Amino acid sequence: MSSRRGFLQNVLAGAGIFASAKVLSAQEMQMPGDMPSMKIKAKKETAHDHYSSVLAETPDVPNLPFRMDGDVKEFHLIAEPVRQEIVPGRIVDLWGYNGSAPGPTIQVTRGDRVRIIVDNHLPEATSMHWHGFEVPVEMDGAPGSSQDPIAPGGRFVYEFTLHQEGTYFYHSHMAMQEMMGMIGAFVMHPKEAYKPRVDKDFVIILQEYAILPNITIPNSMNMEFNWLTFNGKAGPATTPLIVRHGERVRIRLINLGMDHHPIHLHGHQFVVTGTEGGRQPESTWGPGNTVLVGVAQSRDVEFVANNPGDWMLHCHLPHHMMNQMSSMVGPMSRRNGMPAGLDMERGMGMMGKPDVSKDANSVPGFPQDAFMEGPMMAMDQMVDKPENFGLRPGWSGFMAGMMTFVRVLPQDKYDQIMELRKKQEGKKPIKMDMPGMEHKDE
Ligand SMILES: [Cu+2]
């Protein structure tokens, strides 16, 4: 028990949600697979069944633990204000769940009976909608029509049996609260993995905020956005997806915002294997490398990582590949400037000069990217983490907004990063052995 408890505390502390998870104590909560009988079953299934699913990983976002109450998986979500660093030095005031925006990822298996206790720690009413769920209407979370809004300090307990499979999500059904960050992924795994089976399964939630310079609070009524995030982080603070050369990879993209996002992968063709309605028949899978994820939609893409390298994965809308963009009054700044308390070298990372010709100022239109992108803007050391190990020096100067890497690595480099990950305290890979599921990082 103590090791499990320690593990759980690590998970929660590492995710920064420990302080807010007051209601269920560490002893009461468990990660999927805690039941001895379930563990045995899981082992049996992984030993004999090559088609068990892998658990999905949501970079920079924790999984939500649960406890078993009889046959019911009980989860606990707390709607609350969240202080979040979206890039180094840029701490903003969002609203989310259990200390995170987006909220923690919920993972279940088709057929599960789930109970989700939602506590409202916000200063105003909220409501929780289960997006795309085929559940009784009184569990739908539509405020005013299917239930009373959850008052500040109040609680609503949702309970239903899940017969669907796919990439779903939960979100506040109050529009302005959505734009403060109130969404989380809800992955419903099939009982038996789809074929071809994937080796890695990732979740990325697309969000956007309008936060003017020197302000920490998003303007939820704005129609233009200057902070675009993957899982609550803007490049270069996003965490790359780490895969082995040759592995089959699924990426589940979820969009809850005001804009649609064409998500583009370098170096590979993928197929769209699922939408917010579940799995797509294989006959619909055509090759592509850009998928438009519309508002309120999800898209699953799958590909074989057969091309080694550090490949960009990003929204292709030009303004969504920028940070801190605001109307042009003089040269634009894509970063938050140099953070206080750091010397030049550490503040700027790789030092360098923008590559500008002598007559640059005489060319109409100059500057465009000259002072916003390049080695001068790099902050490699400030975003140092195992997943960034071995990237080309200065890489971070060219990453912003909805942008990350899919790093297709040979075995030795892959192992090196996994080793670094293990060493890094408080950021262990979150292992949850669920019946019929595998975590393949070990
Ligand atoms: Cu976009």
Please outline what is shown here.
This protein is mainly beta. It has helices spanning 2-14, 36-48, 175-178, 344-348, 411-423; strands at 53-54, 67-69, 72-87, 90-97, 103-109, 113-120, 128-131, 155-161, 166-172, 183-189, 200-209, 227-230, 241-244, 248-255, 261-265, 270-275, 278-279, 287-288, 290-293, 298-304, 309-315, 403-409, 437-438. The chain is 11% helix and 31% strand.
Question: Any overview of this molecule?
Answer:
The chain has 442 residues and is mainly beta. Helices cover 11% and strands 31% of the residues. Strands 11, 12, 14, 16, 17, 18 and 20 form a seven-stranded mixed beta sheet that branches. Strands 2, 3, 4, 6 and 8 form a five-stranded mixed beta sheet that branches. 42% of the residues are buried. The structure holds copper (II) ion (CU). Residues 228, 259, 261, 315, 317, 320, 402 line the site of copper (II) ion.
Q: Which descriptor suits the 3D outline?
A: globular
Roughly how much helix do the residues carry, as a percent range?
Answer: 10-25%
- Termini Cα gap: 22 Å
Q: Which ligands does the model contain, each kind named once?
A: copper (II) ion
Largest sheet: 7 strands, mixed
Output the helix-strand order.
HHEEEEEEEEEHEEEEEEEEEEEEHEHE
Count of individual beta strands: 23
Unreliable runs: 1-29, 31-49, 328-351, 429-433
Q: Approximately what portion of the residues adopt beta-strand conformation? A: 25-35%
- Radius of gyration based on Cα positions: 22 Å
Compute the number of helices: 5
Structural class: mainly beta
Mean pLDDT: 83
